[in-house]
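Quick one:
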Amino acid sequence: MTDDHAELHDTLVTRRYFAKFEAITGHLARVAAELESEGSLTRLEARIIGSYILRLSASFTALSHKYLMSGRLDGPLPGKLSFDRHESGFPVAQELLVMANDAQQATRHLAGMETEAELKDAMVRQIVGDLTIPTRLQFALSQRLYYETLRDRDLFWARNDPDLQWLGETPDRRSWMVHWAVYDSQTNLPVIYLMNVQDSGRTSLPKDNRRWPQVQSHLMAQSLGGLKLLTIAKGFDEDFDDLHPRRLRRIHLGPMHSSGFTLQSGPVSDVLTHAGAATGQDWALVWTVEDLLSDRVETVKTGWFSSAERQVFASSPFAGQGLEDIGATKLERMIVLPERPYQALAELNPPGFRDVRKFVVGAGGRIIPQR
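Output:
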């Protein structure tokens, strides 16, 4: 635990926290669909991002079951959710690491538990017979639901290993979309990576028992928030002579700001305070996309009688103008927020938000893009 981390001690507060994220992850899937409709994402890219958002939602569902009875029982169980209240708003990465360990033992735990029907029947008998609240039975049922979610759902883990989709083929090479994701332990944020790769190898990449495991291991080892996209892409390009990264994107889902849960300062704090929104509407989530594009290809010697292609990546148009080199061709920030916080944002019009894309959650969860 650090000063930036906090625990949720109260049952109702914990449930309100997870209800907020359940709504937010639903909105994020609709934002991805909106970006597809305007041409910022292809259908495949939107589908991949949407699948990670669904997995993230399932992970929140699992954690909500695990901590459903927080504050209702004496003693160390069921524990308390730890979340990053300052830079992230999301659960700390340790929560996902523990969840991954629990998933390995989910089947064994479930085998030793009563079924959901048996637990509910015991609850009814205690309520009717003893006239008491079956708190411990409720806890037992919440843990059963937790382990069932770990066993049956596709979840977002701390490490989500690379997968790939075929994009097309020319006479001399194939094109793939390689994608993977991590839950960054430094920022406590989910991060998605998309890489367009051309494959000039003899064997198709997913069928290549030599290259594909090495690619997966290499990319996971480089999936650190502190590394610039340029560093990641150049390292990949140099380590695999017959794989050519043409584009690399990194999508940060978060941070989530909420006046009820997180500590924020500056314009975001002013916006949420000024909005005075109702519970469930007092939030804003930032969505950041880093994008690195290959500008051209050079041929370099790799030995006495061999050579290989190397990508020359396009730098930001602002590089060399006194600004920090972002290690990417471009960077775009977006913010998703309900109507009341958006109205406050429009009224205050803080300078740092003028170039940020806004997606407003309207009635019925409809996403309304704004500039």
